[in-house]
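INSTRUCTION: Work out how this chain folds

Token vocabulary: learned, describes local backbone geometry

RECORD BEGINS BELOW THIS LINE
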Amino acid sequence: MPVQITIIGLGQVGASIGLALSAHKDNVFVVGHDKEFSIERAAQQKGAVDKTEHNLPKAVTDAKLVLLALPVHQIRETLEFIAPDLKPGTVVVDTSPIKSGVANWAREILPQGCYYVGIVPTIAAEFLQEAGTGLDSAKADLFKNSIFLVDAPYGTPGEAVDLVTNFIRLTGANIMIADILESDGLMASAYLLPQLVSTALLNATVAQPGWPETRKVAERAYHTTTSMPDDPETLRVLSLHNRENITRVLNTMILSLAELRDAIEDGNDEAVKTHFQSAHKNREEWISDRFSANWEDKKTPPIEKMPLKERLFGSIIGRSIKEKK
């Protein structure tokens, strides 16, 4: 019998995971929930879920894994709402890029016998230039050959972690195990800093006296650099939940800007040239690595040759983690 996975939040991430799982209907049955009826209907028509359930408690009652593909400021309330209806052994997973706050909420709210594992999905290189975030931008191969960070709090049973990692493999992604502190540090640089730089650029230009004229000639470079995928409330919560790392990466950014400013102010042609050439070279190398997905330090453990269902859910089907303990 297929294992039920419930996806709460059917935007680009949630629906893309659902579409990837649709190729494995013998093993998983996907129930979808979204606060908007119209999005639920559209997700089912698109094939991202096998069934929709607008009643949130009913949506999670029989789930073995519950995926919260939600903005971070909606996660605590959702955890409080679903907690009474989770059965023992259920693993709750979220896709927020910053985990410290979410892990604390899960520890406080989830009932005994249920477990939390955080994941941070990254999209495939082919889609980096696409700006969509909603259901219309969902794709079955959005995560193919990309990397998911997996953050399991200390003490999480191995069966719960295995359930999550094998679920991720069905999306076509690779896995990088990290503790929460490491994961939040990585995402401070890779995810939040670009949006904070974007915020600073907007505030530094729009507030200036020359903006009425500047806005008429601002084009591709300005548009690209000021693109922020997160809404202001999400960005606020993520930044405050990761204050120490954000302060560190902002200080590094400020130092880099100051060095570039000084080189330009001094007319130091060689130093300015080095800044630009180094940045260009580093970006080209990153893009090449991202598309090849052949990281030098990547270590892939051998995969046992056993039936998919047994490999994916064999340690959990027929017995709860609580019973095993």
Notes: The radius of gyration is 22 Å. The mean pLDDT is 90. The first helix runs from residue 12 to 21. The chain is about 50% helix and 10% strand.
